[in-house]
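Supplementary notes for students who missed Thursday's class. We covered one full example, reproduced here. Read the sequence, then the structure, then the short commentary at the end.
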Amino acid sequence: MAEPALHHVGYVVSSIALSIDGWRSAVSPVSVSPAFEDIIQGARVIFLDLPAPAVKLELIEPLGPQSPVAAFERKGGGLHHLCFEVDDLDQQISKMKAFKAMLIRHPQPAIAFGGRRIAWMRTREKLLVEYLERARNQV
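Structure (token representation):
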């Protein structure tokens, strides 16, 4: 089984459309994904492929006032979470619970990842971590 690998860093913005040019200048992405609107997550997201191998920057825009990131955006947005890709999501959740991390969103499919499951946890150090289940053909 492969170790968890950093997949992306999530950053909350008030508007992807209004901020994308600044991000293109700041991080010089090699490509930018199409936008994904995920009703389950309550957010619109895009991914910027960074020049560093296999690392992405996710820009997250709340879809409305009920979005899980809306309150964060109202405070100015900013660095939101780290996402790690894992082989077995349920096993990773159990492992993190043993380290006293708290599960804050149970596993669910994510549109931006082709329906692969994600889960959200907060570590004892108050770090918000998203875990993304690795596609079976990537193991």
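Commentary. The chain has a mean pLDDT of 94. The CA atoms of residues 87 and 138 lie 9 Å apart. If anything here is unclear, bring it to office hours.
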